[in-house]
Amino acid sequence: MQLQTDQIQVSLAVKTALSNGMVLLVNTEKRRLAVSLKDGSFQVSMMTSAVSGLSEAYLLDSPHALNDLSWHQVIIDCDQDECYASIDGAQTSVIKTVVAGYWAATENRGIYIGGGGGLTGSHDEAMTNFRGCIANLTLNKRDLLSEVNYSAEATSTK
């Protein structure tokens, strides 16, 4: 899936009993948006690269452990100027983005569901693969789980 846009909207439902793991990673040339679980709490963060180096901002760090086997709704909405994030309709946060420009996923970058694709960075502890359930995952109103399922079916051998 190619991604070339100045706005990114992500919505997903998640449930797990485990404490750590990368739920979703959108990795582009200048930006990295991560939804991860660390010590039972959801974190939504964005890393940007600028001339001055890497900059990371936490959009959301849930104050309560959410690895309770209940469904939790995560919503993220970023444009060129700011990002908004919420979990279960509360704990909202808005930050100004550091780098203006497009979210552009290319062949050596991409969208990772349930892991970090072998990437490293400040999320190293959370880069372990996520184990739990993900449902209703949309990126810019596209149903990613249906696309992943279709892609897997198209490449399987019988």
Automatic annotation (TrEMBL):
Domain Laminin G: 1-158
CDD domains in alphabetical order: LamG
Gene3D superfamilies registered for this protein in UniProt: 2.60.120.200
GO CC terms of this entry: membrane
Origin: domain of life: Eukaryota
Name of protein: LAM_G_DOMAIN domain-containing protein
Species: Soboliphyme baturini
Lineage, highest ranks first: Eukaryota, Metazoa, Ecdysozoa, Nematoda, Enoplea
